[in-house]
Structures are given as structure tokens and as C-alpha cells.
Amino acid sequence: MGEQATPAGQARPGDAAGQVLGWAHEERHRLGPRPQQQAGYAVYAGRGGRTNGEGIRQLRSLLAPLGRTVIAVPLGKVLHLKSAVTALPDGTFLLLPELVPAGLFPAVRPVAEESGSHVAPLGGDRVLIAASAPRTAELLEDLGFTPVVVEISEFEKLEGCVTCLSVLLPGR
Length: 172
Prior knowledge:
The protein is of the alpha/beta class. It is 17% helix and 23% strand. Strands 1-2-3 form a three-stranded mixed sheet, covered by helices on one side. The longest helix has 11 residues, at 53-63.
């Protein structure tokens, strides 16, 4: 989903955060479509690419009344935070240390495969993971998770990953 230009003051159709929060913002105050990870009361927001400092500040002001703390994570080598780090159901984070600063996260499980840093928790102990990350799938299994391995090599050729191909809907 790419950036979509609209007149200043209107949320872009591709701006998921703006739509969910009912928040319209100006183009110069950008908050990308998939900027965050959440663990407990902390919301980790990727800064760079599609999300700038003013977007982070506005996200903080929107989430502070809900008791959430927003932590900006600098992105240099990836467009989306979810392409570099994933929060697991046990509160730990999978990440590739070359992509994001590990010190910003409370409990890190470093991975050696880039595709192992972007997985999608499916509920319970199940975690969706690309077939290109067999060592990370083995790590997840050792940690008590059930890896659900999918072949997405054609998407990976265009920098796609399981988080890009997933829309997670909360259970009711």
C-alpha cells in the first residue's frame, strides 16, 4: 500500500493509523500506514521513511490519555518497523540487530535471518513465518511456539514479507 496524496488536513486512504484513530493530519506531519508495534503499554513507532517526528509527537499526544507511551525507533534500512522487529506474545521481540537498535526494546531475541525478524503472531502459540527463515522457525519452536511456515519467495523478491501480506483481526 503506497502513500496517497490528499489535500492537507485529510487522512489518506492508505493511512491506517489515521483511519483507526479518526485522525486527519497534514502531509508534512506524516504517520505511515504500519508504523507501530505494541507491547503492554509501550507503543514502538518507526521514525523515518513514511513517519516523521511530528507524526510521532501527534501519536504520543493521542495515545498518552490512554496510558500508552510511544517510543520512536529510528529506521534507516527498512521502510516499516514491522519489517525489522516483531513483538511475540510472550513480550519478547524478534529483531535483526543491523536493522534497528536493540537497546530500545525490553527483551530481545536476535535472529540471524532478515525474514526471521518479521513474523506474524496468529493467536495462541502459532506464529506465521516465511520458509526462508528456517533457523528462526527452529528458535520459535524451541521457545514453545508453533511456527506456521509459508512459502513466499516470489513476494520476497519484491521485498514483501509475512507482515506485509497480513491483516490481523483481533478475536472477539
